[in-house]
Amino acid sequence: PETGCLSIVVLGASGDLAKKKTFPALYNLYRQGFLRKNEVHIFGYARTNITDDELRDRLRGYLPQGTGDAEYVSSFLQLIKYVSGSYDDPEGFQALDNAISEHEISKNSTEGSSRRLFYLALPPSVYPQVCKMIKNYSMNRSDLGGWTRIVVEKPFGRDLASAEELSSQIGELFEEPQIYRIDHYLGKELVQNLLVLRFANRFFLPLWNRDNIANIQIVFREDFGTEGRGGYFDQYGIIRDIIQNHLLQVLCLVAMEKPVSLKPEHIRDEKVKVLQSVVPIQDEEVVLGQYDGYKDDPTVPDISNTPTFATMILRIHNERWEGVPFILKAGKALNSRKAEIRVQFKSVPGDIFKCEKQGRNEFVIRLQPSEAMYMKLTVKKPGLEMSTVQSELDLSYRQRYQGLVIPEAYERLILDTIKGDQQHFVRRDELRAAWEIFTPILHRIDKGEYKSLPYKPGSRGPAEADELLERAGYVQTHGY
Ligand code: BG6
Q: Keyword Nucleus on this protein (predicted)?
């Protein structure tokens, strides 16, 4: 592993993302020994004029309070310094550079090498100017080694053109290997498990194709609404917030061919091919919804047609997947909180048990909550009678891996950026291909050509979505 001085700069240090995700992830890395006191320093940067201690006090409440944490929390907070400045102000970034350099000198960094990680917990509108400031004033200039890396979060644009513009602006300042586009779904344990599952198990290899699979669902549900984020959410809607990024990334890993190796570029090459094989989405294969009460948020316009729910079918035009619907479904204010992948297999030909009605084989990967994988299969109903029943082969992580702590997505991804591993980050051409799929339909939604159907909070979403599922050939199963 690389050693030497590591400076982590969190820009937007007093914002929501930083407090709720970035700093807690950094703390967990520190607590587990991945960030070493003698090497690392963390800098918060934001506009508010506060002292180091004031920032530390603000962050304390977001850090774990469990047994044994108090001492670690205090020593972690001591690693944090605060620099205030605006996002287009050379002076602020010069001050940041001075603070980092001071730290590097004080740590007597190994032969002057300097590793600088800039985490932009900021709205994308300021990315270009912030990147320019970093490039001009705060990046690593040591000719003795080290690096500068930039971490950015979605939304990367609103459509193809705006995303490309953003990519070019950042791309003029930093090279692709320096840019880490986070999609936190790629940091989830069971998403990271997908390639292992698919390519390290003989079971799946011959079955994972159009000959055996009837349809695949990738589902995201939340049982709460936009909760104070209505103003932000209304500009984007559920497709940009969840489907175009999180669910599509999962789809890539489910559908891609085996990469030549585990090198990040090989994996991302295969993901791009999947995206490029998606055919245009058909009107009749989209259902949009908006929950009743969404517009009660004063920051949401009364005439908003922004979808808070969508079910849509993507079709991949290649040898493996022709004819298999990939059903992407996401919604806010539904009846449960869950993210899962459901692979439904075709019926058994010449079924002598007449068991199709009970359901088909299904392989379910539950990403959250309670990570699990289970396989629905037909067995003889135990007892004297010869009848069949749907049952499950179940691998629930909590039971099987008792005592093992599953890391938070952000924790893992930040560690990857420090290591320089881009496997779980979105490459520029991947981003472009993802926007190419959704831009036409998003533009039409924006023009009001699709209507978001109303649904009750706490429901399954509009009934039309279940009808679409049925039309796509999904067969409900009935367990024991
Ligand atoms: C974010 C979305 O990217 O993901 C939110 O902007 C959503 O709207 C969140 O709530 C869900 O993440 P998770 O990890 O809780 O499924």
A: no
